[in-house]
Amino acid sequence: MPTDADTSSDAALRRQLHGLPGVDAVGLEARAAALGTRSIKTTAKAYALDLAISMIDLTTLEGADTPGKVRALCAKGANPDPTDRSTPKVAAICVYSDMAATAKEALVANGAPEIKVASVATAFPSGRAAMAVKLADTRDAVAAGADEIDMVIDRGAFLSGRYLQVFEEIQQVKAECARPDGEEAHLKVIFENGELATYDNIRRASWLAMSAGADFIKTSTGKVTVNATPPGTLLMLEAVRDFRAATGRQVGVKPAGGIRTAKDAIKYLVMVNETVGEDWLSRDWFRFGASSLLNDLLMQRQKLSTGRYSGPDYVTVD
């Protein structure tokens, strides 16, 4: 039974979220499209390719994942191009929670303990489970060594207007990110923008998650038809910019799903630079959730340095 305090908190949160300015969809999409046409010089492209590699959460989230596949992914993330040791390492390896310990051990074995282990949790990708199950999922991932937790919000609750429920779930998951060593796993909150349906909902979800303590806000799981899009990501970048101006706290952004080419990745980096500036142009504040993107970045990187494309066996096929 809701208490008076619950009702008051819910009403206050609803006023806050519905008091946000409405999104000009036409203007947002036009701005995203315009940013996508920007060209960069060759020297800047070399920098952008390396930066994009360093921002990748190299991901495998399949029911058929095996320890061997995860170890191979960790080896690739630690040494993306064995012929060129100057190639940056990726930011993180993203796996299911039962593979977090395997990933942690493999990264140490490959001499890359600085690469983070990101674990999806909270009944990924649907988010449909009892709260006790979601919290246990998070605890298991953190205990296994996960440095980052990628949780999914309850879209059904959000779309039904039960904002306080979603807010409190994020807070509870955040509390489970504390580790015995006194450190805290970073929390990335996934909205599944394609299911939120409107830009206004994406803006509200962004502010809700950041207010609840999210360290990153993330577009999508990569498991639905509509995943990361330039307009949705632009809107989230504007939200983190405005949130920092209002609160002084900086929050990261992670577009995930459907970003497969170096050309697309560079468009997103231009968007970051033009919208929130250099403060977000690092792996600490911007990530790409991807599996195949790394391959194209490596191909383009070699093309830039040698003037020709490599053969089809130059990079491993994920």
Automatic annotation (TrEMBL):
- Family label: Belongs to the DeoC/FbaB aldolase family. DeoC type 2 subfamily.
Q: Which CDD domains match?
A: DeoC
Q: Does the keyword Nucleus apply?
A: no
Query: Does Lyase count among this protein's keywords?
Result: yes
Top-tier EC class: lyase
Q: Which PANTHER family match?
A: DEOXYRIBOSE-PHOSPHATE ALDOLASE
SUPFAM superfamilies attached here? Answer: Aldolase
Please list the GO terms describing molecular function. deoxyribose-phosphate aldolase activity
UniProt pathway? Carbohydrate degradation; 2-deoxy-D-ribose 1-phosphate degradation; D-glyceraldehyde 3-phosphate and acetaldehyde from 2-deoxy-alpha-D-ribose 1-phosphate: step 2/2
**Which InterPro entries does the protein's record reference?**
Aldolase_TIM, DeoC, DeoC/FbaB/LacD_aldolase
Its protein name is Deoxyribose-phosphate aldolase
Q: Which UniProt keywords apply?
A: Lyase, Schiff base
Tell me which domain of life the UniProt entry assigns to the organism this sequence originates from: Bacteria
Transmembrane stretches, start-end: none
Q: Which organism is it from?
A: Streptomyces iconiensis
Chain coiled-coil ranges: none
Q: What is its EC number?
A: 4.1.2.4
What reaction is this protein's catalytic activity? 2-deoxy-D-ribose 5-phosphate = D-glyceraldehyde 3-phosphate + acetaldehyde
